[in-house]
Design a protein that fits this description.
The chain has helices spanning about 15-25, 35-45, 45-50, 60-65, 80-85, 90-100, 230, 235-240, 245-250, and strands spanning about 5, 25-30, 70-75, 105-115, 140-150, 160, 180, 190-195, 200, 210-220. It is of the alpha+beta class. The relative contact order is 0.20.
Length: about 280
């Protein structure tokens, strides 16, 4: 059975990127300190109880993909100032700087994925196929962290990963069960992974456990993000966030060194609306 490496946030970054490059992902066991984990949980978990499982719009394929027994909740910045701080975490930001280029990306997803009892396995996929015309190159379009807000176990739906599959040729090659493993981890840990690695949410065979992960990926700044952060984050919240978090959520314009400026307001930087 393949395995994912477990490293610590005290591991030198070069060693972390080496494991990421070798397997297409790894687990950082102590990513969030216990205080940050507790604050995040206190801020966001109350939203879970009243949120319905499943999606009511979109094609049946996507309803299935997003999980009929899974709750997905976005707009976390309005619920949690701690989430704004985590967005600026040096290792988390370091991953995106390393793989996508400094100031060259924005937040793709910032959602709770709460996999409920009875959920079936998600279709295994590569995240970069969200942008099929841009995918399939040597460089990364998107990299992601899933922060475990509860323990992730094989029983409750820990992410299924195919280590090494980020290098497999073809759009979405078939995967044998023997080529996969579960990203089991304790609450506060994070799974970091490449947009090219084949993975999916696990099935939840428990009777009463919700597996709660904060799925938080970055994508190159010239590609549209999966989530509409500006519609779920109020401008008053945005004004209170650190500048990097404002940029990640699209409240500042994208101004790469070599390309045209994007996301402008009156052809000024959108950040002027915050000042
Ligand atoms: O929740 C997980 O473990 C993975 C979910 C995922 O890959 C997705 O929804 O695209």
């Amino acid at each position: 059975m393949p395995e994912l490496k477990h490293l610590s946030r005290r591991t030198p970054h070069e060693e972390i990127w080496q494991a990421f490059d070798n397997d297409g992902g790894l687990i950082i066991d102590d990513f969030l300190d216990s205080q940050t984990l507790q604050k995040l949980r206190d801020d966001v978990l109350p939203a879970v109880a009243n949120h319905p499982a499943g999606a009511s719009t979109g094609h049946e394929f996507w309803k299935d993909f997003h999980g009929n027994e899974t709750k997905r909740i976005t707009g976390l910045a309005d619920m949690s100032p701690t989430w704004g701080e985590v967005l600026c975490d040096s290792l988390y930001k370091g991953m995106a700087d390393h793989y996508l280029g400094e100031d060259n990306y924005h937040l793709n997803t910032g959602q709770l994925i709460c996999i409920g009892p009875g959920e079936t396995p998600q279709l295994l996929h590569r995240d970069e196929l969200n942008w099929p015309e841009a995918a399939g190159k040597d460089t990364e379009l998107t990299v992601t962290a899933i922060f475990a807000l509860t323990d992730f176990t094989e029983e409750n739906g820990a992410t299924v990963m195919a280590p090494g599959s980020h290098r497999w040729p073809g759009r979405l090659p078939a995967v044998e069960a023997a080529q996969t493993c579960h990203a089991t981890m304790t609450a506060g840990s994070a799974l970091l992974y490449s947009g090219k690695v084949i993975h999916g949410g696990g099935s939840n065979s428990s009777l009463d456990q919700w597996r709660v992960g904060l799925h938080a990926g970055f994508v190159l700044g010239w590609l549209r993000a999966e989530e509409n952060h500006q519609l779920t984050t109020s401008i008053d919240t945005a004004r209170c966030l650190p500048e990097h978090a404002q940029r990640m959520l699209g409240f500042r314009s994208f101004t790469p060194p070599k390309a045209a400026r994007l996301g402008l307001v009156n052809y000024e930087d959108a950040g002027l609306l915050l000042d």
